[in-house]
Design a protein that fits this description.
The chain has about 170 residues and is mainly α. The protein has ten helices and no strands. The radius of gyration is 17 Å and the shape is globular.
Length: about 170
């Protein structure tokens, strides 16, 4: 079935990313998670599948499961309106966000999955809102979920969201 269909992706990712500690087994696990949890994976070109599988395998080395990366890719493309390339860049940017706020990348990934339903209203700008939430989380000691809970329903309307972000920036 699907394993044979994606054998080229698995082989190419496994050999191309050996210097990152990614082998064929890692590539197969990433490809399987993407196949089962990232709805657009089957419609991508082989080159796109390889790039997304490599990113997913690399993220697994940082403690982020392939399933969670696939879920975040799905959120980024379906809820935020990002194209596949933008979504893959976002996943890779979790490392920069983690460094800037001094939190583990696995926590950034989990925070994104948790916060996305409340900030999806912003579309592509939700990424900037998420970065602000992470910065405020670090400076206040509150989790992203706690911050969203504090401002909760304000994220349900455009006006309320603008006010909530303004208050976050004032913290």
């Amino acid at each position: 079935g699907a394993g044979y269909e994606y054998s080229g992706v698995i082989s190419n990712v496994g050999s191309a990313y050996l210097t990152y500690g990614i082998n064929a087994e890692d590539a197969a696990a990433a490809t399987s998670d993407l196949f089962s949890s990232f709805r657009d994976f089957t419609t991508l070109s082989e080159a796109q599948q390889e790039k997304i599988a490599a990113t997913t395998a690399i993220m697994s080395k940082f403690g982020i499961s392939g399933h969670e990366t696939a879920k975040n890719l799905d959120i980024a493309t379906k809820s935020l309106g990002l194209n596949v390339t933008e979504a893959e860049v976002l996943i890779r940017d979790f490392e920069a966000i983690a460094k800037s706020v001094g939190k583990p990348i696995s926590e950034i990934s989990a925070d994104f999955a948790s916060a996305a339903p409340q900030i999806a209203f912003y579309g592509k700008q939700a990424i900037d809102v998420f970065k602000q939430l992470e910065a405020q989380s670090k400076s206040t000691g509150l989790s992203v979920d706690q911050l969203i809970g504090t401002f909760g329903e304000q994220f349900d309307t455009f006006e309320g969201s603008a006010q909530a972000v303004g208050r976050l920036n004032a913290l």
